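Notes to self after the call with IL:
- keep both proteins in one doc
- input above output, always
- annotate only the second one for now

Protein 1:
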Amino acid sequence: MKFTKMQGAGNDYIYVDCVAQPVPEKLPELARAVSDRHFGIGGDGLVLICPSEQVDAEMRMFNADGSASEMCGNAIRCVAKYLYEHGIARKDNLRIESAGQVYTLELTVDDGLVERVRVDMGEPILAAERVPTTLVGDPVVDVTLALADRTLRVTCVSMGNPHCVTFVDQITDELVHTIGPRIEHDPHFPNRVNAEFVEVVSPREVRQRTWERGSGETLACGTGASAVCVAGVLTGRTERRVTIHLLGGDLELEWNATDNHVYKTGPAVEVFSGEWPD
């Protein structure tokens, strides 16, 4: 199986071109094997780039633990870069499907290489039953989440996958690595959830770390950054345009007041290619 390792703001996945080769078998097992950072290629998960009769391509993705994921805002930028630079869809504007939803992407190209990609992430989902969460509130904005040893104030947003955003004075490893997994598996989230911890620098600038459902802490989370942008506006902490500093780099976010869509702009980088033995 031929593969390409790519990363967007440090959020790295193994990409398989299923336009040029068959879809691999036993995908959950394959995702776990290739994602292993000691015995595999190493990554936050596995992404399949598949042909589509309706749009330019379909993205299918699996987390590092083998579970399926609906969407990744960093991965879809990398898919767009791959489509353009490998000649599958050499256009400045692309449409890519993921989990039944179509996303529009605008590419910034310099000397034949895609440098940045702006993604229309669509409208945020705020209805509690669609996030989904059983926490009180509809939408769930700055409400109490009681854990075994502490209480948090959280805001819940879905950007195609579920997010639980907590604003804190200071992000710590203990919050991310201990509280993050507890939030992920809390019974208020029937499909599990991604946990974001956010420091507000100013109304136009925040810092974010994410415990991703099925992958653990990642260097960046694109849908999480989108959820943070929305949560910041809903709680009165930030403006609609915000720069988000993640461990792997910066993303530019805007929750547009006119069409209610979230727009995310960031880099996409091809790291290396190789072959994985059958």
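Protein 2 (the one to annotate):
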Amino acid sequence: MPRFSANISTLFTDVDLPERFARAAQAGFRGVEIQFPYACDKAMLAERARGAGVEVVLINLPAGDLSTGERGIACLPSRASEFRDAVGLGIEYARALGVTRVNCLAGIAPPKASDALLRETFISNIRYAAGELGRRGIQLLIEPINTRTLPRFWLHNFGQAIALIAEASVSDTLPNIAIQYDLFHMQIMEGDLSRTMAENLPHIGHIQFADVPDRHEPGTGELNFAYLFDAIDRIGYTGWVGAEYTPSLLRTEDTLGWFRPYLLREQQQQQQQQ
């Protein structure tokens, strides 16, 4: 059965971020993700996570000025120094929160930018980030994002991500980099989700999901999540599967009908083992 984590940047948003750890735990989640925890004190967040009894499984590196529409700086040649500072801050928060996977957003390609230069910049930056994170036992993830939601997002398909990882490698083995595979983004860009995951499992470090087209909870759109979650089990994926959707209702708890059968199954398994 998949291990589900709650992205508390998009879920339980009727309360402030520090209060969401307890809400996620009360709903049955054992893991949580945070997109950008940097507005809060890292020690306080770590204490809240411990108090709620949840594991923080993922954060993103700082991604530029989100208020102006930036969604990553890793491909931007003029921001290389800022990117290195972002890696340092990301490491501080990851270590404080006990996080072992950190996601890097490539960013939006500037108009008329040289794709070759953006590629060279991105590869240089992820090599640096993978090295710095790897020395602390943290894996770097890169995430393809659909260009309907974010026009001109530079990293936008799975094959491109695999090629970038291969090029960033300095040996015959993969570096400390894997792909964050978001079912929402990849359904929009490519489809063929279950086969892509099965054929490329070694490249996938984390999975996220939301339904298509409106990025709400499972059951509100076109994806067959019962099939996809079973497929994730069948291929032998053992990592976390992150719920990163925008609830269609005010209270996240009212959108967790998709989750309750899995939670019940987990509780039954625990009872059988006692």
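Annotation: The beta strands are 3-7, 31-34, 55-60, 101-104, 139-142, 177-182, 204-209, 240-243. The longest strand covers residues 55-60.
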